[in-house]
């Protein structure tokens, strides 16, 4: 995964000049017990060592994890809840474009750990996450960029904090974590993809919606992004997730979209026929809501059919035991927070 490139530019932080000021801080924090919360990864949960955390996040696009000194805060974060953070001074983002691992860190101790022993590391401190992401895009490998879970084109608009902590001594007690992610095996020639949408404060002013598309653990096609445009509703996010999945898959492939949104499935498999016949107005004579996305999905389905493929839909109960749906939901929630 590591991409060995030329040394960092002169403006980058160097190990010799930056490590010394934080040495006393590192000695103080080395003996502090930390809990590593994985919200989005192969096996979400709370871990007691960084090594265990890294096993669940390395190579997982859009992985979301942080360290805490409170077990309760870690468990809340892993469950998708918002956990307040405290810090002194302005926010700092340490971008490690070449390191082991790569990523964006909020503490120098963590960034220093990622570049230790790496030949030709590339890293730099920024005051905004967007600048840190741009730095990794410029100097990092494709794997380093994909590991951020950011879109590869367009400007960044900020994102979720990724805190990669240092190794600590493993205590005698451990936190139970979910079993390994196991998904149903798709028949040969069929692309099975899970989609979901999320809207924080759905239906209220200031709502933020996100899109989640999950093909499988570690799949580079997995997607987590903020819903563009207005309104920022859950239904629009659900439909957009379907559209993004169809845009990602080859036109001639047969795709099975698994969603917990009966509304979205009905829109494109049942109600659309009547809407098209009536000029995209409802029985009450009002314009069909979200028709821009619905019509885009239908166009992709038609295009797929002409190319020899097909589009199938499967409904699953949301927030239940379907691991693929859970992963798509986590990606959608993360997108809403971007």
From TrEMBL:
One Pfam family it belongs to:
RNase_H
Q: Name one GO molecular function term.
A: nucleic acid binding
Q: What is its EC number?
A: 3.1.26.4
Low complexity composition bias: residue spans: 8-23
Q: What PROSITE patterns would the database entry show?
A: RNASE_H_1
User: What are the protein's UniProt keywords?
Assistant: Endonuclease, Hydrolase, Magnesium, Metal-binding, Nuclease
Recorded catalytic reaction(s): these are:
Endonucleolytic cleavage to 5'-phosphomonoester
Is Hydrolase among this UniProt entry's keywords? yes
Cofactor(s) this protein requires = Mg(2+)
Q: Where do the segments described as Disordered lie?
A: 1-26, 156-179
Task: Quote the InterPro entries the UniProt record gives.
Answer: Ribosomal_bL9/RNase_H1_N, RNase_H, RNase_H1_euk, RNase_H1_N, RNase_H1_N_sf, RNaseH-like_sf, RNaseH_domain, RNaseH_sf
Domain of life of the native organism: Eukaryota
What is the documented function of this protein? Endonuclease that specifically degrades the RNA of RNA-DNA hybrids.
Q: What is this protein called?
A: Ribonuclease H
